[in-house]
Amino acid sequence: MGIERNSPFSPPRVTPGGFALPGTSRTNHTGSWRQERPLYETSPSPCHGACPAHEEIPVYLDHLAMDRPRQAWESLVAANPLPAVTGRVCPHPCESSCHRGSFDEAISIHSVERFLGDMALREGWSYPGFDGEQREEAVAVVGAGPAGLSCAYHLRRFGYRVTLFDALPEAGGTCRVIPDYRLPGEILSREVERVLAVGIDFRPGMKLGRDLSLAELEEGFKAVFLAPGRQKNRGYSVDHALPGDLHHGLDLLWELRNIGTLPRWERAIVVGGGNTAIDLARSLLRTGTREVHVVTDEELPGAPSQAGRGVMPAISREVGMALEEGVRIHPGRRIGRLILRDERVVGVELVHALKEFEGQTPVHRAFVGTETVLEADAVIPAVGQEVDSAGIERLLQNRTMLPVLPTGQVEGESRIFAGGDACPGGGIVSHAVGSGHHGARMIDALLRKKELSPKTPPSPIPYSSLNRVYFEQRPAYVPLEVSPEARDGFSEIETTGSFAVLRQEADRCFSCGHCLECDNCWTLCPDGAVLKTGGRSDLPFPYIFDYDYCKGCGLCAQECPSGHIRMVPES
């Protein structure tokens, strides 16, 4: 960005002493000498690209580092209205992608997200962005889990009237069954209540296919967003044999949520490698089951793996905590036979097994001759859930999940959108939040009669574009955890950090591709061709280039710590 201006000075003249008059050097527009020009350009950071909720992570980290926690939270909830939830339960792929991890240690982004969410609850901050245009169109959202809540929230920000339906008596979806040691029910309830309070008409106890139909929704609303999740247990048997008192993992977690306890067994075996299996195994230990085993034909997270092998989808840190607490995990195994006595399980025959992928298709292999017997008095499948087809049969057409286009629309439909776990690619809360936001943006485009054009995310800025010489190596913040020996009942294990330590953690951010306002370009420019904008709201960056005098030396781009400046050929 440059400034065009005509110099008020007359052509330079030389005085008898041989010196130019003050200011006369400004008449020589040395910018005409350059072959390249610098540009200020925000580039996508790798953490933003990896975040399923599409949070602008460097922006809110910068606000917090500059002692602006409320602005940090407001930037965060512009994408994700549930940071106190996702800061606790998201596997934070943003941290795996953080360039700081190649320098010393990745930023503890989830700790900052959790801190900001908790601070907003404590201080009672109001969600920003709800005082704009109010539109007449009404939109229906079905399913009050994280995808439906996110979609309803963003539609309200865009000014639409929103009615949110759910079959359950309270909003939150399957987040309600996450045990309190990971996500306290009070935190979930408070954040959900704040989302509903932005003007969403919430109607609980309304099940699609029983209390309302898709045709009624299409008739009464301009658009419909479906977020039913996956609530139906997947079928399970071992060579068609079943124990007489079969319990499914998700059902038991709902029982724990509603009743506060679980059946007690001497030895229980949980089958599966996902979060439901690990949550249930740890909960069984806490409610009195003496010995808990998890059997999965997948590999442990972090274990040496070969290409194509299946890895437990459960969050790695939760698997590690389960092992610390005494859960016995049997990776690379499957149950080959149930040992029953009067239809009651007394043991199982385990066999070495392997889950591999041929393309996208999982293939389960068992190895004959590797059988061992494990005593047990309960076998509990936690092998996943399916979409309940009630009310959406014509959309599913015998498929296991809703077919969704890149625009968020259900295939073959113009006014029906979908997101969350009922669609391919889901499985974690932050993905559901992001799909709800995407659905709201696409519905907004539809109702404003704009082209529905989903953005193709550009490649994140490479590590090589950063000037790391300006950063000191510092260890990452490590959240305090209750020791395995002291984990009593369902009290939360991880604690929320203090403002002081998390402000320091935010200050470790490289701000990849985003301006740090470090003044390097302004200080080091040999031509004085970098000007400060003084915080003007009509200019996108804190600095601009005066191209009349910029010779294109590239020093500003070379010395920019965050890769916010790039050199381009002079046109």
Structure explained in plain terms:
Helix content is 27%, strand content 16%. It has 571 residues and is α/β, with parallel strands linked by helices. The strands form six sheets. The chain has a five-stranded parallel sheet, sandwiched between helices. Helix 4 (83-89) runs antiparallel to helix 6 and helix 11 (275-286) packs parallel to helix 12 (316-325). The longest helix has 19 residues, at 429-447.
CATH topology of the largest domain: FAD/NAD(P)-binding domain
Q: What is the beta-strand fraction?
A: 15-25%
Please state the second-level CATH architecture of the largest domain: 3-Layer(bba) Sandwich
Low-confidence stretches: 1-12
Instruction: Give a short account of the largest sheet.
Output: 5 strands, parallel
Compile the SSE list and pairings.
Layout: E1 36-40, H1 46-50, H2 57-65, H3 69-77, H4 83-89, H5 93-97, H6 109-123, E2 138-142, H7 146-157, E3 161-165, H8 185-196, E4 201-203, H9 214-220, E5 223-226, E6 232-233, H10 249-259, E7 267-271, H11 275-286, E8 291-296, H12 316-325, E9 328-331, E10 333-341, E11 344-358, E12 361-366, E13 372-375, E14 378-381, E15 385-386, H13 393-396, E16 416-418, H14 429-447, H15 499-507, H16 520-524, E17 530-532, E18 543-545, H17 555-559, E19 565-569
Parallel strand pairs: 2-3, 2-5, 3-4, 5-16, 7-8, 7-14, 8-9
Antiparallel strand pairs: 1-19, 6-15, 10-11, 11-12, 11-13, 17-18
